[in-house]
Amino acid sequence: MKLLDGKVVSAKLKEDIKKEAAELTIKLGRKPHLVAILVGNDGGSETYVASKMRNCQEVGFESTNFHYESTISEEALLNKIQEINQDDQIDGLIVQLPLPKHIDPEKVTEAIDYRKDVDGFHPINLGRMQRNLPCFIPATPYGILLMLDHYQLDLAGKKAVVVGRSNIVGSPMSILLGRNSNPGNCTVTLTHSKTQNLKEEVLQGDIVIAAIGRKNFVTADMVKEGAIVVDVGINRETSTETKSGFKLFGDVDFEEVSKKVSYITPVPGGVGLMTIIGLLKNTLEAAKGSIYQK
Ligand code: NDP
Fold it and tell me: Which ligand 1 atom lies nearest to the CA of residue 250?
């Protein structure tokens, strides 16, 4: 078994991004600039946004975080998004999900200018992705593609099974793996909670992407010998063993599954780090204007 090591790959790609950011800063006369909007006080979301901001600084981007109380009205949030859309000193905008119940996430996603939508959630970016046109690819699937590409895993003609069909991970991942591109050209099965005989479906996978949100859901008996396993899950549990007071678990039973597969991502240290790279690369592209002209 070989580890698909997010620490190694993300460190290398971060160096590349840092170099490009420095060159672009000279050309533009300012740094690439990412804005994140955070609403409420969800511990996980606060950690993710802080990490995104920190990573921006590490590669030489400017980053701004607007943090609002969970009581902010939908209208006020949409107005802020419009203001950012019109600010030509800002290249990328992300709104951390989930949002409080009174705010419609679809309205928020569609309010973001698709040319600044570095999370790749806007329907224009998703539609262009499906058609294999230049676009912002959702950060997590993008990070996974970069990881697979780094290890030069030949997926063409292989069977891919994606478990979970969310708009941000499972669904775009299934489209990307099925596209006529590299990595891609897989024969894809997209599974979810209504899938019958899930175990038999997952056992078919030469590559399995697990994005369910349940600790150790994918067990060794569900995975084919020699498969490639990508674990997207981040399941937080409180723990007295760590300084932070919590511990992260994936959706895959790493200890058992790793004994029979050819490649596997760890949690932590796998897809989470690559998601950040996906976001940084999209922000760089937004600043360059290489996907959508400025
Ligand atoms: P969602 O909750 O949006 O989607 C979960 C998916 O899993 C749904 O499609 C659901 O099916 C499916 N599912 C749930 N239970 C079962 C089951 N028993 N059998 C088969 N399918 C099932 O989750 P996300 O995609 O947003 O996230 C998934 C995981 O990935 C989470 O742990 C999340 O924290 C993590 N994550 C990690 C990221 C990273 O950077 N590493 C980034 C984003 C997410 P149905 O549609 O039928 O309900």
Answer: 32
Dihedral of CA atoms 97, 142, 147, 198 in degrees, nearest 10, equals 70
Supply the pTM of this predicted model.
Answer: 0.97
Q: Say which CATH topology domain 139-273 has.
A: Rossmann fold (3.40.50)
Pick the CATH number of 27-114 from 3.40.50.10860, 3.40.50.150, 3.20.20.70, 3.50.50.60: 3.40.50.10860
Point out which residues pair with 237 in neighbouring strands. 247
Q: Answer yes or no: 119 catalytic.
A: yes
CA of 59 to the centre of ligand 1 (A): 30
In the prediction, which pLDDT does 195 show? 98
Positive/negative CA dihedral, 179, 180, 183, 188: positive
Q: How far apart are CA 286 and CA 125, in angstroms?
A: 13
Q: Tens digits of per-residue pLDDT, 70-81?
A: 999 999 999 999
On the question of a cis peptide bond just before residue 123, with omega within 30 degrees of 0, the verdict is no
Q: Where in the chain is the domain with CATH 3.40.50.10860?
A: 27-114
Is 224 in the active site? no
On whether the CB atoms of residues 128 and 135 are closer than 8 A, the answer is yes
